[in-house]
Amino acid sequence: PGLLLLASFLLHTKAGRASPARLLCDTRLIHKYIGEAKDMEKKASQCQALPPLTCPMVLPLVDFSLKQWRAKTNETKRREILCELAVLVGAATGVQAEVTQECAGRQLSLLQRHANSFLLLLQTFGWEAAPQEPGCSPRSMEHAQLAGIFLTYRQLVQGKLRFFFHDLAKDACE
């Protein structure tokens, strides 16, 4: 899935005028990733009951106010999503060794690959030459259940990422 996203990006980029947003003109792609996030969450919930994590993972709170979201620049939105994705990937990496059940481990690995793909994609575009913020520290909460990471990832893809891609498509697509 990550290679598909990157390949789509490269195929939709015009020579001399790199526009990652060209990838976003086909809304079926984001809907595909939303569907995959829902599927991962569903499959993980069907795995055998998992014990609580011995060390709770820190996950970003990805809820948002649409009014406040629309007031932000695309660069601010991109940075916010990058930060939340980085925290998600870190949480997934941190609990990977603790998840010994094959079913849940497979879904967790898939989530990591997808989140890393979005991280790579969002790192390829930035519009403003603004100074980088020192680190990132999104609003967060500790979760002791593995299901929390799948829920958070789905909410991020279904919410901020979808709206971000929609905003980019408005500017980049005819």
Work out the helix count.
6
Radius of gyration: 16 Å
Largest β sheet strand count, sense and barrel closure: 2 strands, antiparallel
Structural class, by secondary structure, is mainly alpha
Q: Unreliable runs, pLDDT <50, ≥5 residues?
A: 9-19, 129-133
Mean pLDDT: 82
Strand order of the largest sheet: 1-2
Q: Structurally, how many domains make up the residues?
A: 1
Helix content: 55-70%
What's the CATH architecture name?
A: Up-down Bundle
Strand tally is 2
- Name of the CATH first level: Mainly Alpha
Approximate strand percentage: under 5%
Question: Looking at CATH, which topology would you report?
Answer: Growth Hormone, Chain: A
Overall morphology: globular
Protein name: TPO protein
GO molecular function, one term: hormone activity
Subcellular location: Secreted
Pfam family, one: EPO_TPO
Describe this protein with a few key phrases.
174 residues, Growth Hormone, Chain: A, mainly alpha, 5% strand
Could you characterize the architecture of this molecule?
The chain has 6 helices and 2 strands. It is mainly alpha-helical. The protein has a single domain, classed as Growth Hormone, Chain: A. The protein has a two-stranded antiparallel ribbon with strand order 1-2. Helix 1 (2-11) runs parallel beside helix 5, helix 2 (28-45) packs antiparallel against helix 5 and helix 2 runs antiparallel to helix 6. The longest helix is centred in the C-terminal third of the chain and has 26 residues, at 147-172. The chain is globular. Residues 9-19 and 129-133 have low confidence and may be disordered.
